[in-house]
Design brief:
single chain, 472 residues, alpha/beta, Aldehyde Dehydrogenase, Chain A, domain 2, 2 domains, seven-stranded mixed beta sheet, globular, Aldehyde dehydrogenase family protein
């Protein structure tokens, strides 16, 4: 089907709250993008009531009927893809080109379709002639989806697509930094979904807290910081809510001594710098064997020097700004700590503080102490520390030394050897010769303080339902 929002101006007009709303600024230019409604806890209450009232009829549809709606929603997103891409580029900062805004819009429709491809047939647990037990998954009810500012549309779809397929209704709370793109996405989805099935509330932290503690919300899905995830886990105890928490990470990459530096350099670069490093499962600390350390550093510099940075609507750019002042300051502090310690800056390191926007140059830091703050704290930005090692056991120990474990990677010309090392790394996902690529067919989730629960695939779909066994 053709989307009713084929242009940016159409979509912007549909969601802009006018002067009465909160002004959202472009992180690349500082100019206004639009106005988001300042919803309140009362607005949230109305949204939860609507979702509750709509859930039974939505759950009464067959799985095939719900999937047909999600396929139509994917069609609508594809029809509005360019408008959505421009909106998220203006608001979040990621360029249209490269693995940026168009990539994010395309992922939204792909996730909707793939979520409907998972087989969730009834499972026969026991059938021995005397006992017959079958297992099915039933809807939870109302799901609260609280999303981040780094991939606002894509992660929202990760949350709502499986929730809707399972027969739940959803109330979405976007980040205060990037509400417009989520409002736009929901507007497009609701052009085909039944009324009341999907609600969005654009408010502050008080609204998010109210959603995470609401007695009629049966599950909360949250992607964001570990600190906020802890608060949600604590607050959920009173109502024993189900939770999926995808929290912070500080992903390690280990380059073995048999890797080809020139061959892996571009993969390493995008593993670290996709979305300006503002990705939960980005490569954030890189351990390289001493025998190829200098060559890997040199090849990374070559790649990084050829990646243009600037305003996202310029088709030539593949890197954009850091999304907000708070995150810019974190990256700035950590890079300063590295340079003050005597680490060697191979590229970048010093932003132009007089220029508009939150642009921080692509920064590569070598010969850095493994205990430096840039290594042990999550920078969530465009700065990669490169740590030299000589003993593989020591590198694995360092990779496992932190209290987070979202993703990791091992780089080698010998995949069997790389898999053996990967099995020793403490992370929810370990990639071989790549980093950070997620797939709607493959379960994804963290360990340690990177959260719990999985998303994607059949396992992620099941987490949006409650198991029911019929025995007899």
């Amino acid at each position: 089907m053709n989307s009713v929002y084929t242009t940016y101006s159409q979509l912007h007009a549909a969601i802009d709250a006018g002067e009465s709303g909160r002004t959202i600024l472009d992180p690349a230019t500082g100019e206004p993008v639009g106005h988001a409604p300042a919803h309140t806890v009362d607005d949230l209450e109305r949204a939860v009531t609507t979702a509750t009232d709509s859930q039974r009829a939505w759950a009464a549809l067959s799985d095939a009927e719900r999937c047909a709606y999600l396929e139509q929603a994917a069609d609508a997103v594809e029809g509005a893809a360019e408008a959505l891409a421009e909106l998220v580029s203006r608001e979040q900062g990621k360029p249209l080109s490269g693995p940026g805004a168009r990539f994010e819009a395309g992922a939204c429709s792909a996730w909707l379709r793939t979520t409907c491809s998972h087989d969730l047939s009834e499972e026969t647990v026991v059938d021995d002639g005397e006992t017959r037990a079958v297992l099915n998954y039933r809807p939870i009810g109302v799901v609260g989806a609280i999303g981040p500012w780094n991939w606002p549309m894509m992660i929202t779809v990760w949350q709502i697509a499986p929730a809707l397929r399972m027969g739940n209704t959803v109330v979405v709370k976007p980040s205060e930094y990037t509400p417009l793109s989520v409002l736009g996405l929901v507007e497009v989805l609701n052009s085909v979904l039944p009324e009341g099935v999907l609600q969005v509330v654009s408010g502050d932290g008080e609204v998010g807290a109210a959603l995470s503690t609401h007695p009629r919300v049966g599950k909360v899905m949250f992607t964001g910081s570990t600190a906020t995830g802890r608060k949600i886990a604590e607050a959920s105890a009173a109502s024993v809510k189900r939770l999926t928490l995808e929290l912070g990470g500080n992903d390690a990459g280990i380059v073995l001594d048999d890797a080809d530096p020139a061959e892996i350099a571009e993969g390493l670069f995008w593993g670290a710098f996709i979305n300006m490093g503002q990705t939960c499962a980005a490569l954030k600390r890189l351990y390289v064997h001493d025998s190829i350390y200098d060559e890997v550093c040199a090849e990374l510099v070559k790649v990084a020097q050829n990646m243009p940075m600037g305003v996202g609507l310029d088709e030539n750019n593949v890197l954009g700004p850091v999304q907000n002042q708070m995150q810019f300051d974190i990256v700035d502090r950590l890079v300063t700590a590295a340079t003050d310690s005597g680490a060697r800056v191979l590229l970048g390191g010093e932003p132009d503080r007089d220029a508009p926007g939150f642009f921080f140059p692509t920064t590569l830091v070598a010969d850095i102490d493994p205990a430096n703050p840039l290594v042990v704290e999550e920078q969530f930005g465009p700065a990669l520390p490169i740590i030299r090692y000589t003993d593989l056991d020591d590198a694995v120990e360092q990779a496992n030394s932190l209290d987070v474990g979202l993703g990791a990677s091992v780089w080698s010309s010998d995949r069997a050897r790389a898999r053996a090392v990967a099995a020793r790394v403490e992370a929810g996902t370990v990639w071989i010769n790549s980093h950070g690529g997620v797939d709607p067919r493959i379960p994804f989730g963290g360990i340690k303080q990177s959260g719990y629960g999985v998303e994607f695939g059949v396992d992620g779909l099941k987490s949006l339902g409650v198991p029911q066994v019929i025995n007899g």
